[in-house]
Amino acid sequence: MGMTTGWTTKLRRFVEARLSPEGELGLHMTVGVALMLVAIVVFHEIAEAVMGMAQITVIDLQVAQWFNQHAVPWITSCLLVVTHLHGVIGAITLATLLGWYLHRKGATYWLFTLVITMPGVMFLNLLLKYIFVRARPSFDAPILQTALSTYSFPSGHTATSTALYGLLGAYLICQTAPGAWGKRIAIALAAFLMAALVGFSRIYLGAHYLSDVLAAMAESYGWLAICIAGVSTLRRRRHIRQTT
């Protein structure tokens, strides 16, 4: 009986520590790990469906062919700007500008998060491309004339933009007043829509399939969640050591 009570007490203390907003391995790390695990599950399900030639691959082809056949010139021009702005050079430029902004604000830990998030998601995406080696969509009359030398799954443009705008959104949310839920939701929605716009541009232009974009967003959100949680843990640990 005493052993059972002791085990229950230890379990209760462990759960309370994981849900504590103040602890160095508390609620922030629990949420980060939970979001990462959800992202891994979503990515796995998409990847398994794609590699198994499940129904999603049929939808991929239908969506790709529909946009290729119904392209509107002015929309194409706008989405070409979006997609080129978020290529490798564009992503590095935008990340540099965000880094400069965070430096000016004195947000050292957020700057460190950016430094590990962006190169990390680029490397992870490239690694996944060579693991799954999925061919790009092909058309008789492609909208995007530039030859694409890398593989299709998952989308690199989408992964980097999701990480970039997700991190910016997280930073801005943390700067808002605790009770300003309307503003926080608006920021989160704007960050999501910016990443979704980049993903849509890749589908519309025929550079990627729908599943490439969905998998890239899941991959990127999972990586971003663990990066933010990890740096937050580092910050809390240093703060605790300095105050003890």
Automatic annotation (TrEMBL):
This is Phosphatase PAP2 family protein. InterPro entries: PAP2/HPO, PAP2/HPO_sf. Signal peptide: none annotated. The keyword Transmembrane helix applies. It comes from Janthinobacterium violaceinigrum. Keywords: Membrane, Transmembrane, Transmembrane helix. The chain crosses the membrane at residues 25-43, 74-102, 109-132, 152-173, 185-207, 213-234. Residues 110-228 form the Phosphatidic acid phosphatase type 2/haloperoxidase domain.
